[in-house]
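Hi C.,

You asked whether I'd gotten around to modeling the 123-residue construct. I have! Everything is below, sequence then structure, no commentary in between.
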Amino acid sequence: MFLIMGIQQKEVLKNYTQVLPCHICEGSKGFEVIETYSYFHLFFLPVWKWNFRYAIKCLSCGTYYTVKPESLKKLGGDLSAVTYWDIEAVNMKTNAAQSKVCSSCGYVMQSDFDYCPKCGNKV
């Protein structure tokens, strides 16, 4: 008998419609939520899931946030009730004092750039 099993990690992009202000850029493009968990699979079918974590990415500046564990317990896993105070920045892609924003596409870049690396327009 041949048995296929294992443990893997999976990331799932969740549908998230609530608008939160970004701590860094205060952008209004919104956020996307990424749910990460580990799971045990048997014959490629997930059997047990554990270690759920949530990352929130700002679509304006690319800063990643995590939902504080105490807030996640308080909310009971319901991300629709997450507030500004329930998240904390983990990976700040830019520093507001050392960044420029493209007037054409809104891309946040380093202050020493003369042209936008995303759309090519002069800043």
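If it helps when you're writing up: The mean pLDDT is 79.

Thanks,
B.
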